[in-house]
Specification:
The chain contains 16 helices and eight strands. It is an alpha/beta fold. The longest helix is centred in the middle third of the chain and has 18 residues, at 115-132. The radius of gyration is 19 Å and the shape is globular. The protein starts with a helix and ends in a 5-residue tail after the last helix. Bound molecules: zinc ion (ZN).
Length: 345
C-alpha cells in the first residue's frame, strides 16, 4: 500500500466520529454473548468460543436472523443490560466514536422483563459508561415491525424511559416487506405528542413506497437506509428539498444483498442528487465491520478525505442533539483536523 493511502487510513481511524444508526445487540462481541450464555446457562449451538465466533459471522439473511435471536436469548437478567451498555461505550470508544444514537430491540425486551427493572439497569449502565469513558450515547428503543402487536407496549416503555431521561426517541426496525408504516401511524403520532423523536428503517428491503409511508404516515425525522429512494425521482426531489437525513450503512447493504458485491455503493449517487447522507455500521459485529472500515471503503471507491469529513459533519448536524452540543462536536472534529494538518485531497 502506498504511503498516502496508509496516511489516509490512519487519519480515518483516528478521526473523532459520530454514528446515528447502530443496534446495541449488533455491536456486542460474540465473546460477550458467549459469556452471558455461560452465566445464564443458555445452550448455544457451539461448544467453544472459537466455533461460536465463526457461527456468529454473517452468511445469509436467515442465518443473520437466527444469530440475532440466539444472541438476544442469552440476555436473561435485567442487570445484563448494564453490562451490554457499558461494553457498548467501550466498543464505540475503541473506534473513536465520540457520540452515538443507538437502537435497542424493545419488542424483544418488553416480552421478558418489567419496564422498571430494565430502565433501572440501562440507567445504571449509562452512568457507569459515562464515568469510565469520554464518549456519549443516546438510546432509541425500536418496534420490530413484524411484531406489530408489541407496538403499544414499546410505546409505553419508550415514554417511560423518555420521562426518566434514558431514551429520547422511538424507532421502527425489523422486516420491512409486508409491514408498511401505516400500521404504526397512531403509535408514532402518540410518541411525537409526548416529545419523542421518531425514526424508521425504510427503503432497504422494500422500495420507495416504504419511504413515502415513513414520511407521510409516521412523520419521521430521519430515515434508516433509504437507499432505494433512488428508484423514485419525485422522492429524490422531496428528500433533497426537505433535507431529511438518511442513515446509510454500506457494508450492511452489501451483506444483505441490497447492493451487489462488485458495484460501487449508490451513496455517491444519493449525495450527487443533493440528499443529506450519513455513514453508519448498523450491526458491526455481525457484519464484520466498524465505522472506520465504512469510511475506508468509501475512500477506496473514490471519496476524497474532504467528502468523508463532510459525511461525518452531516452526522453531527443530523443528530438529535441540541445546537450547543452539536457545536461542541464540530469543534472536536475541527480541532482534530487542524492539528492533523490533514492530507489535502
Ligand atoms: Zn438497522
Amino acid at each position: 500500500m502506498k504511503n498516502i493511502e496508509r496516511a489516509i487510513e490512519k487519519e480515518i481511524e483516528l478521526m473523532p466520529k459520530v454514528e446515528l444508526h447502530v443496534h446495541l445487540e449488533g455491536a456486542i462481541t460474540p465473546k460477550t454473548f458467549f459469556q452471558l450464555a455461560n452465566k445464564n446457562q443458555v445452550k448455544l449451538p457451539c461448544e467453544n468460543l472459537g466455533d461460536w465466533e465463526k457461527y456468529f459471522q454473517f452468511k445469509d439473511f436467515q442465518h443473520f436472523i437466527d444469530v440475532y435471536g440466539l444472541a438476544v436469548s442469552t440476555i436473561k437478567k435485567a442487570e445484563d443490560f448494564s453490562t451490554l451498555i457499558e461494553q457498548f461505550f467501550q466498543y464505540q470508544e475503541s473506534n473513536n466514536i465520540i457520540y452515538s444514537e443507538v437502537f435497542l430491540s424493545a419488542s424483544f425486551i418488553i416480552q421478558n422483563f418489567r419496564n422498571q427493572e430494565i430502565l433501572e439497569a440501562i440507567e445504571f449502565g449509562i452512568k457507569q459508561g459515562e464515568s469510565k469513558h469520554k464518549n456519549r450515547i443516546k438510546l432509541i428503543p425500536d418496534i420490530s415491525r413484524h411484531l406489530p402487536e408489541t407496538q403499544e407496549q414499546v410505546l409505553e416503555f419508550a415514554i417511560e424511559g423518555y420521562k426518566r431521561g434514558v431514551f429520547f426517541g422511538l424507532g421502527l426496525g425489523g422486516m420491512e416487506v409486508n409491514y408498511p408504516p401505516k400500521l404504526f401511524r397512531e403509535t408514532f403520532k402518540e410518541a411525537k405528542r409526548n416529545g419523542l423523536k421518531v425514526v424508521a428503517h425504510a427503503g432497504e428491503a422494500a422500495g420507495s413506497e416504504s419511504i413515502w409511508g415513513a414520511i407521510e404516515e409516521l412523520a419521521v425525522e430521519r430515515i434508516g437506509h433509504g437507499i432505494r429512494s433512488l428508484e423514485d425521482d419525485r422522492l429524490i426531489k422531496y428528500l433533497r428539498e426537505s433535507q431529511i437525513p438518511i442513515e446509510v450503512s454500506p457494508t450492511s447493504n452489501y451483506r444483505l444483498g441490497i447492493v451487489t458485491k462488485d458495484e460501487n455503493h449508490p451513496i455517491r449517487e444519493m449525495i450527487e442528487s443533493g440528499l443529506l447522507c450519513t455513514i453508519n455500521t448498523d450491526d458491526p459485529e455481525m457484519f464484520s465491520t466498524n465505522l472506520s472500515k465504512e469510511y475506508k471503503m468509501l475512500s477506496l471507491q473514490g471519496f476524497s478525505l474532504e467528502k468523508l469529513y463532510q459525511l461525518n459533519k452531516n452526522a453531527i448536524e443530523s443528530s438529535f442533539l441540541e445546537v450547543d452540543e452539536k457545536m461542541k462536536l464540530h469543534q472536536v472534529l475541527d480541532k482534530y483536523r487542524n492539528n492533523k494538518n490533514s492530507i489535502k485531497p
